[in-house]
Amino acid sequence: MSDLRELLAVGSAQTMQFFYNHLRNNAPVGMGREETLYIASILAHYAQTSRFEEDTMGPAVSLCEILDNFVIPTLTENFYGAPDPEILEIAGSQTLLLVGFFRDQVRNTRRHNIRWYDQIGKGFFLRASAYSKEETKSAMLWDVSQHFPVWTYSCQRASRAMREERYLIHPN
Question: Is the entire prediction scored with pTM above 0.85?
Fold first, then answer.
């Protein structure tokens, strides 16, 4: 029973390290450590965030939600002022989660043009970079936007590796 308790007591740091290790093993050579950590933080965040979280925006469950929650509202942003870089970053993160980590599952539905969503995700991060007031954050978001297709495929490969290898989180 204590082994089960240890397994269930996985914390944020362990989750982050878990995703970082898999991304590092599945990303092309030359991807920066900081950028890899940022992508790992996205996956770790959504791995620990309930869909029905009250304090934060829970992860989208489909690409239709990405369209409804982020794409269509940005079409009207000219009427409502400058876009919010935090919302654009969330939109990019959720797009990365679905078209990257869950790419195989989304592709099997055959309802969506996943490459179009690759461009949408890249655009979210690019615009978040443009509107971000923090210089280092802006640079990170720009890097992610430029490497978005690389990250979607890296996340897809990491996801496949995790499905093929069971019980990878081991208590220290």
Answer: no
